[in-house]
Amino acid sequence: MAADTGFKLTYGTMFNPPEELHTQFDETLARMKTHLGQEHAMIIAGEERKSAEKFENRSPANTDLVLGIFQKGTIQDAQDAVTAAKKAFPQWSRTPWQERVALVRKAASLIDQRIFEFGVVLALEVGKNRMEALGDAAETADLFRYACDQMEANQGFVKEMGRDPLTGYLSTNFSVLRPYGVWLVISPFNFPCALTGGPTGAALVAGNTVVMKPATDTPWTARLIAECLRDAGVPDGVFNYVTGPGSTLGQALIEHPDVAGVTFTGSFDVGMRIYRDFGSGRWVRPAILELGGKNPTIVTQHADLEAAAIGIVRSAFGLQGQKCSANSRVYIHESVYDSLVPRLVELTNKLVVGDPTSRSVYLGPVVNKSSYRDFQNFTGQIAAAGHFLTGGKVLTGGEYDKGYFCAPTLAELPLDHPLWKQEMFVPITTVAKFKDREEAMRMANDVDYGLTAGFYGAPDEVEWFFDHIEAGVTYANRPQGATTGAWPGFQPFGGWKGSGSSGKNAGGLHYVQLYMHEQIRTLVRKI
Questions:
Q1: In the UniProt entry, which residues are flagged as the active site (predicted)?
Q2: Is the pLDDT of residue 5 over 80?
Q3: pLDDT band at 427 (very low <50, low <70, confident <90, very high)
């Protein structure tokens, strides 16, 4: 896609793709629609495994459409997957890091080659529009490569330290980062490619073996990642792919004593429960958690209002607001409020809602009935206490009746209302005025989350924003997205406070090291 056209797909460039991209997506969509409804097995120790119970993966855009049949894995399947990973660990961890990197790079190349298949599946099972879907897949390949880049740049993380000043002896000391063991990756529905593949690629490059457990709403995408790893030649048992309920299969994985580390992306409540359960083992084990956001944008009186309007709408309603980085709070200086808000409403009303595989559509459905009900509950609360600027309703009639479609919603709400601090994860954004930027910053930081944040203002205000905002990913004057659009090697993604546990961002300079622990090797010889 990049080689022939010079176009590099990222979340920042996806708004102006070449025509060839749409042609290939449409051709792949037509081909894959003829194969819907097939059964897909788990992969444990390199072998396909089916279970007695199954579950259907249905499209949230058309719930009559069965995308595939997947396995309802059991506690025994969880145990077998961990056993397979543990058995494969000694050889994989001692495989030269250069060979591990080569295999992960090969898997990344296979994702590139199959990117339109990934994109179609992501659109069908998540409800992403085609550009968001292709972006998720492209990001995954780049996350694989970035982990490899860091391993190579640091020469496998083997570094000589100081030599002890011993008379008559040569005393050398080396710092070596080594893998932990079996790593569990529990991924969410909204980015089932990048948030399965990114942690998996980092864990594998570091020398761990992996058990992948995707969300039950989106098992197909993770299956495609598993196939790329298998076809790249990653040895049996080094990666394992299991599907099934979090309450049984997932819990059995979390509680398994042979799981050495876990990466979880999802809600704060579930993540904290995993953190506590995982902490009840025999010793402290690493838990890399990314737990959502309530992301603000501040617009001062000096802002480029058109850039702000475009960036806010893109980040508020991309993927139906179902991003942990979604721009769900907007604080606007009172002097420009009446100029910016009508433009936000105008741009929001232009967004097309419908079948996410359609070229013209920006918003697909929310992912399931639970999210659909959440939207109705939240809009009910807003109707009782605030004012809708636009939206505020579910969409019905025609194709909307078969899916979970919600109107993108902008609302004014009293600043003491609980929804200003609650992650909603649906297409709702609240807006409010402020008098001075210090007041705006206090409101922006007055939440338990600290994932992403946006700012529009004068150049001499930008450093003040960066210095005072409490968030892990921050953007200033960015029309491509006020709070969204992170990309490996450009904007590593991770949060502060209740948004993240590690203090290091995925796709960045310090991420792959999280999957290794340090060993110091001291050798003393007479001279």
A1: 290
A2: no
A3: very high
pLDDT digits (tens, 9 = 90+) for 481-506: 999 999 999 999 999 999 999 999 99
C-alpha 370: how far from chain center = 20
- Which run of H or E residues covers position 145? helix 130-153
DSSP 366-420: -SSHHHHHHHHHHHHHHHHHSEEEE--SB--SGGGGGS--B--EEEE--TTSGGG
Measured distance between the N- and C-terminal CA atoms of the chain, rounded to whole angstroms: 59
pLDDT of residue 325 exceeding 50? yes
CB of 408 within 8 A of CB of 316? yes
How far apart are alpha carbons 133 and 136 in whole angstroms? 5
Residue ranges in 207-260 assigned as alpha helix (H): 219-232, 251-255
Quick check: 223 and 216 in contact, CB under 8 A?
A: no
pLDDT value, residue 9 = 87
Fold held by 295-486 = Aldehyde Dehydrogenase; Chain A, domain 2 (3.40.309)
| Region(s) of the chain under CATH 3.40.309.10 | 295-486
Rounded to 5 degrees, φ, ψ at 80 are -65, -35
The CATH fold of domain 10-291+504-522: Aldehyde Dehydrogenase; Chain A, domain 1 (3.40.605)
Say how many residues make up the chain. Answer: 527
CB-CB contact of 316 with 427 (8 Å): yes
CA–CA distances in Å: residue 9 to residues 115, 136, 282, 357, 358: 11, 10, 45, 18, 19
The letter for the amino acid at 447 is: V
24 sits in which H/E element: helix 19-33
Which one is catalytic: 125, 132, 290, 423?
Answer: 290
Name the β-bridge partners of 473.
Answer: 452
Tens of pLDDT, residue by residue over 45-100, are: 999 999 999 999 999 999 999 999 999 999 999 999 999 999 999 999 999 999 99
CA dist 367 → 45, 123, 348 (Å): 31, 11, 20
Contact 372, 395 (CB under 8 A): no
Active site residue 290: yes
Q: Which of 303, 379, 383 is nearest to 343 (CA)?
A: 303
The H or E element containing residue 445 is: helix 437-445
| Residue carrying structure tokens 């702000």 | 308
Question: CA 454, 457, 458, 463 torsion: positive or negative?
Answer: negative
Question: How far is Cα 241 from Cα 200, in angstroms, rounded to an integer?
Answer: 11
- In angstroms, the CA 67 to CA 57 distance is 5
Give pLDDT tens digits for 176-213.
999 999 999 999 999 999 999 999 999 999 999 999 99
The pLDDT score that the predictor gives to residue 53 is 98
Token pair in block for residue 97: 């890091």
